[in-house]
């Protein structure tokens, strides 16, 4: 029955497009996330544990957007908690056996939109989470950050550069 559900979502994805899937993604059951993200171009290892409520943003809607999930790479044995937000304006690499706790945000860009401040603040850089790293609940990882292998980021922290 799960296979039929996944196929139904993929048919709708082909019909309604990538923007629809990004809108629908947080509501999909966790068993469906791996095959759907993989079909959409994400590079995924084995034994990835997804919780429900994965939010993926900035994969469509502007000229820099890939219109797929190709900027997402998750290696083997990774845990992604509930309501994790992934900004795929640039590449995100999550290393082997890393833990991304509930409500974490990984941002690969910053922008002020169409305002004058935009030309000063515009920035887009990849983010790398090392193998066996741990991001505590509600952590925010800003663009350009490289979290080292085995590093522990406590809950509610903002990491804004290589640590």
Low-pLDDT residue spans: none
What's the Cα radius of gyration?
Answer: 16 Å
Number of helices: 4
Oligomer: single chain
Q: Write out the strand line-up for the largest beta sheet, numbering strands in chain order.
A: 1-4-7-12-15
Number of domains: 1
Find the count of extended strands (DSSP E, 2+ residues).
17
Proportion of beta-strand residues: 15-25%
Round the mean pLDDT to the nearest integer and report it. 90
- What's the story with the biggest beta sheet? 5 strands, parallel
SSE arrangement, N to C: HHHEEEEEEEEEEHEEEEEEE
Explain what this protein looks like in three dimensions:
The protein is α/β, with parallel strands linked by helices and 163 residues long. It has a single domain, classed as UDP N-Acetylglucosamine Acyltransferase, domain 1, CATH 2.160.10. Helix content is 20%, strand content 24%. Strands 1-4-7-12-15 form a 5-stranded parallel beta sheet, with helices on one face. A 5-stranded parallel beta sheet has the order 2-5-8-13-16, with no helix packed on it. Strands 3-6-9-14-17 form a 5-stranded parallel beta sheet, with no helix packed on it. The termini are far apart. The mean pLDDT is 90.
List keywords for this structure.
163 residues; UDP N-Acetylglucosamine Acyltransferase, domain 1; five-stranded parallel beta sheet; 4 helices
Summarize this structure briefly.
The protein is an alpha/beta fold and 163 residues long.
In terms of topology, how is this protein built?
Layout: H1 2-16, H2 18-24, H3 33-39, E1 43-44, E2 49-50, E3 55-57, E4 72-74, E5 79-80, E6 85-87, E7 92-94, E8 99-100, E9 105-106, E10 109-110, H4 118-121, E11 123-124, E12 127-129, E13 134-135, E14 140-141, E15 146-147, E16 152-153, E17 158-159
Parallel strand pairs: 1-4, 2-5, 3-6, 4-7, 5-8, 6-9, 7-12, 8-13, 9-14, 12-15, 13-16, 14-17
Antiparallel strand pairs: 10-11
Helix pairs in contact: 1-2
